[in-house]
Amino acid sequence: MKPALFDTAPPDVALGIDSGHVAGVRLGVRGGQSVVTAFARALLPAEAVVPSLNASNIADPSLVAGAVRRVIDEVGGRPRRIALIVPDALVKVSLLKFEKVPSRAADLDELVRWQVKKTAPFPIEQGRISYTPGQPTADGGQEFIVTVARQDLIQQYEQACEAAGLHVGLVDVASFNVINGVVAGAAAPTGDWLLVYIAPGYTTLAVVRHGHLIFFRNRSEGSEGTLTDLVHQTAMYYEDRLSGAGFERVLVAGGSAVPLGGEALRRSLEERLRLPVEPIDPRVAAMLAAQDAASPDLLDALAPLVGVLLRERKAA
After folding, report:
1. Considering the domain 189-280, what is its CATH architecture?
2. Residue 293 has what pLDDT?
3. Would strands 33-43 and 287-288 be described as parallel, antiparallel, or unpaired?
4. Lesser CB count within 10 Å: N end or C end of the chain?
């Protein structure tokens, strides 16, 4: 989702709700360096949150609201506004190319809405649409990254936060903010790179070129083919259809969700792609105040939360 614009300071607390857990992060600054000053996670029963594009996601709002309260209590304080990260599986992402972009914002809104309506899996009147410019096209046009989700399903996540006494200042998608965290790091990729983001119930593959998203695919768990096959297919598409000259880096987030573990997945992908594959570590962009608590599954949960807070701080 495209963030709301604030006339006040950006949020310093982000909350993520996904299948299996609620996680929270507070971000501060020490000596000019971004620091995760507090973080917490509350586990949920597997059926408590079931991310879906077109079906109810939260069956027991009070259960999730209780987990949100526990996380916020551990993070400390009572933030006025939070950034809320929702699962990729809740939204449909499209990359739309326009040869000419209307000069009036209202006309651009209407054009985006008309295009999204063609492929939306629900009546567009029920959707919340957001878009942001992507990369310029070779013929002078412009690509836009567009997200659409059912308004009532987003509200399920927002209401779980509101029931815990929180105001949601912005809503955004998990994988987008894993990307934001990578871009905010000191050694951010400068060329083309591939993100493999794994969460309970789904996997997202994204290709980024010079800071612009040029490919996005979300696949639900149980789809045909292995994850390694899917990554290989994406690499072939990148070379054949996106004029890919080779990935500068291949990064994996969420590997701890894989049954065999992130290290086994990393080796499997390296063998298939014949490229080094690195796990994403949000500490590259924001160090943790408590380094001894940095287990792989915790780092996976923190990555999108750190990313959205760093993006908002940069935009402020």
Report:
1. 2-Layer Sandwich (3.30)
2. 61
3. parallel
4. C
